[in-house]
Amino acid sequence: MINTLNTTLYRFLLMAILLCLRAEIVFAEENSAEVLIVGAGLSGLSSAYYLKKAGKSAVILEMSPHVGGRIRTATYADNAHAEVGLEEFWESNPALQIMRDLKVPMETSYTSFSSFYYQGKLYLFHHKSNLDFLKSVITVDEFKAYKTWDETMVALYKQLEVRPLTASLLALKEISFADWIHEKSGLSAKTQEFVRIETEPEYGVAWQKISALDGIAEWHFFSGEGQSPNHVVGGNQRAAQTIADFIGADNIRLNQLVTHIKSTDAGVEVTTNDTGNFQQHVYRANYVITTIPLFKLDDIQFTPPLSPDRREAIKTQAGGSYFTAHVLVDVKASHFWKHNNESILPVLTDGPLGVIYEGQSEPNKDVLLNLLITGTYADRFNSRVNGLDDDQKTIIEAFDKQWPGFGRSVKQMTFYRYHPRAIASWPVGRSRFDILSDSLRVPQGRIYFAGDFTEDTHSNGAATSALRAVKDILLRK
User: Fold this and answer.
1) Per-residue model confidence (pLDDT) at position 175
2) Is the domain covering 25-69+252-315+429-475 a CATH 3.50.50.60 domain?
3) Residue 387: which pLDDT band, with cuts at 50, 70 and 90?
C-alpha cells in the first residue's frame, strides 16, 4: 500500500514538475515585449524599426521561415536574379527614408509610364519624360484634353487629403473607374485605353471592378511627369534583410503561426503554433500590431471578437491578383526589346504576358525576363486548372505573336503563384476612404491593424500604416 502511495505521489510530482517546465517554456520572459507584431513583411519590419528607434521593445511573429513577405528576390545561375513580388518603391513611399537611414543602395531606371501595346502596335518609350512620350502616342487635341483631365485628377487627389471627404467626392465610390472615365473625362477612346493599360497592373483587376474614388488615388503616381519607382541594387530582398538585421534576430520569431489574440485592459496575449514542431507558445505585450493581409485575419480567433464594422470592412474588401514568370532566354534574343541598342522595357502588353520587365543578368550570358501578369490571366495561371506545360505554351504563343520567332530563344520558365487576393482593391460601393476602411485604421482596444491592405495597393501603404500605428502607440500612456 505504501509503495503504491509512493508511486502515485512520485507520478503526481513528476507531472507537476513537467507542467511547470512546460509553463516556463511557453510563458518564458523572452516571450514578452512592449509591442508584438504579426507578420514580417515590409509593414511589420517597418513597425519594428520605428519602435526600436523610439526605444520600445518589439517582437515580430512570422509564420514563414523568412522575413520580407512578398519582398523576395530569386537568384539563378551566373548571378542572374529577378524579383518575385515585383515591389516598387515610389518616390512618395515612407520606406525610402528607412532605406536611406540604413544606407540601402537604391536605383531607378524608368518612370511611371512604360512602352505599351495597343491594337497590335507597340508604342516605344524612348523619350526624356512621360509627357514627351504621351505626345508621341496621341494627337495634339487629344493631348490638350488629357492635360485638362489630369489637372482635374490632381485637384481631386488633393481633396482626398482633407477629412472628412465631401459627399460629392465620396459618392464616386458608387461608380466604377471605367464608367466614370467613359462618362466624365472627355478623353478620346485611345487616351482612355492608355489610362486603362497603364493603371490596371497597379491594382491587379479590370478597371470596371474598382471604384472611381480609388482610381483617382491610383492615378496619383502618374499625374504630371509621374513618380519614379525605385528598386534595391542587388535585389529588393536586401532591403528586408537589412531592416531585419537592424531589428535583431532575437526580436524576430520565424515559423510562428498566430492562432489567437486576446486583448484585455491590462495587455494582450498572442498564441502561436510553431509550424515546424507544432509547439504552442504564448506571447504577452502591451499592444499588438497585425500587419498581415486583412483576409488572413479570419484565420485568427480574437477575444473579444472583432467589431461588426471591422468584420464588414474585411468581408467586402476585394483583391487583385498577380502571377510572376521568370523567363530565361538566349542573350541573342535581346534585339527583340532593344531600340537603337537601348532597352524599351518595361513593356505593358495588355495580354497574357502582362508587364515585361528585365531582370539582372551578367553581360554576354543568358538574359532573365520577368513577367508580372495580373487580372484575368493571373487568375487563370494561379488556378492550376491547366498544367504548367499549358501555361508555358500560352506564354510562348503570346511571345511569338508579339515578337515572331522569340519562342525559340526561351530556355526555361519558373513560375510563382499567389493568393487570388494578393493585392488590395476596393470594388464599386467601397473605397479605401470610406467609413468601413476608417474603422480599420483605429485600434480595437490594444489591437492595431496595419499593412498595405489598410491603406492602398502598394508598398506605400505598408510603411504608411506602420507609421500610423507606431505613432498612436507612442502617444498612449
Assistant:
1) 98
2) yes
3) confident
